[in-house]
Write a structure and sequence with these properties.
Elements lengths: L1 E12 L6 E12 L3 E5 L6 H9 L6 E6 L2 E2 L10 E4 L11 H11 L4 H14 L15 H13 L5 E5 L7 H18 L2 E6 L2 H7 L2 E6 L2 E6 L1 H6 L4 H6 L4 E11 L2 E6 L4 E5 L9 E6 L4 E4 L7 E10 L3 E8 L4 E7 L13 E6 L4 E3 L3
Parallel strand pairs: 3-8, 3-9, 6-7, 7-8
Antiparallel strand pairs: 1-2, 1-4, 4-5, 9-10, 11-12, 11-14, 12-13, 14-20, 15-19, 16-17, 16-19, 17-18
Helix pairs in contact: 2-3, 2-4, 3-4
The structure holds adenosine-5'-diphosphate (ADP) and magnesium ion.
Length: 360
């Protein structure tokens, strides 16, 4: 079942020449209980979409459904939706407990119920010991927990999180990533999480929508998005990728044969409901390829130009015979030996399914 359905939503700011389409006809469905992430660079429209769902602003066109009902007539405070902002927006002069209970007070809940619920929330975010502190006297990570508890206290159906971890340092951010996953699991609330950090999106999400310039380019599981990027922007934004230009020469049951520079033939998969033909771009992740000593036996051949050791893995930079640059990432083990030296003639073999044709 869907918690939220966004249907052909546009949002335009300004008028005339100064007009900006912050959202350019976006459609997406977010399932109940899902940890769903909007991923994209600054300015792509992530916050705008959250604000429309929360009701802080209205779409220029299109509609948003919550559990199948159009929420347009509902003001923000009547929507079963709550938001955690990047800045936390806590009340500094109030205690941790009073901050958490604030939303419930506003809803006019009975004192006893508020007290019980605040107690539960303090426990959920492990802040019982600091319940009487003012929020100006606790750390950034603790403030983050209080902001989460305050947003969860009224038991929203959907929690919107707008880059909630970006103000935290690296170690704390890693801790809070695990904490957020736990909170989502324990409460069963649908989370719509916004980030511009691809690694954060890959590690935390059930599904990801990749956004660019007001559009959603691809929606899928982290595995889908990483291993089967449909467009150049997605492949480029998430992880490191090799791009090869080529021409489709034949097609059979979901796999195309593509001739690339130096006349090498590459077997490549492609997105559903897409018929590749003519000139195409093929992507290969660096870890979906490996080096062999016999250049003639590889999918493609080239000359090793550089070897970079990273501890966990080694990156081999290869100048392909056709002129393209290509990176192979080899995962190291204790017994890994440096088998290739710069200048060596090498072959590159692609893992089965490792090469994919992009839609654009
Ligand atoms: P993100 O959260 O992905 O960084 P935003 O949703 O904040 O992106 O912004 C998307 C685009 O809409 C940007 O070009 C931004 O400048 C523009 N925009 C956002 N809010 C307003 C506003 N209130 N008035 C005019 N332009 C806006
Ligand atoms: Mg934003």
């Amino acid at each position: 079942k869907n918690a939220i359905e966004v249907r052909r939503v546009r949002k335009v700011f300004g008028t005339g020449e100064a007009q900006v389409a912050a959202l350019d006809t976006v459609s997406v469905s977010i399932r109940e209980n899902e940890f769903f992430t909007l991923l994209g660079p600054s300015g792509c429209g992530k916050t705008t979409l959250l604000r429309l769902i929360a009701g802080f602003d209205f779409p220029s066109a299109g509609e948003i459904l919550l559990h199948g009902h159009d929420i347009a007539p509902l003001p923000p405070f009547k929507r079963p939706v709550n938001t955690v902002f990047q800045s936390y927006a806590l009340f500094p002069h109030m205690t941790v407990a009073d901050n958490i209970g604030f939303g419930l007070e506003m809803l006019g809940k009975p004192k006893a119920e508020i007290k019980a619920r605040v107690g539960e929330m303090l426990k959920l975010v492990k802040m019982e010991a600091l319940s009487g502190r003012r929020t100006s006297q606790i750390s950034g990570g603790q403030q983050q927990r209080v902001a989460l508890a305050r947003a969860l206290a009224p038991q929203p159906k959907v929690l919107l999180l707008d880059e909630p971890l970006s103000a935290l340092d690296y170690k704390l951010r890693k801790e809070m990533q695990i904490e957020l996953k736990r909170l989502q699991n324990e409460t069963g609330i649908t989370f719509i999480f916004v980030t511009h950090d691809q690694e954060e999106a890959l590690t935390m999400s059930d599904r990801i929508a990749v956004m660019s310039a007001g559009k959603i380019l691809q929606v899928g599981s982290p595995h889908d998005i990483y291993d089967r990027p449909a467009e150049r922007f997605v492949a480029d934004f998430i992880g490191e990728t090799n791009f090869l230009k080529g021409t489709v020469v034949s097609k059979k049951s979901g796999v195309a044969t593509v001739k690339i520079a130096s006349d090498a033939m590459v077997a490549a998969g492609f997105p559903d409901s897409f018929e590749p033909s003519g000139e195409v771009t093929v992507v290969v992740r660096p870890e979906h390829a490996d080096l062999i000593a016999d250049a003639a036996k590889g999918t493609v051949a080239g000359t090793l130009s550089n070897v970079v050791y990273f501890g966990t893995d080694t990156h081999y930079h290869v100048k392909l015979d056709g002129g393209d640059d290509f990176i192979v990432r080899h995962q190291n083990s204790r017994s890994s030996a440096v088998a290739f030296e710069p200048g060596a003639k090498v072959g590159i073999v692609f893992e089965d399914g490792g090469a994919r044709i992009l839609r654009d």
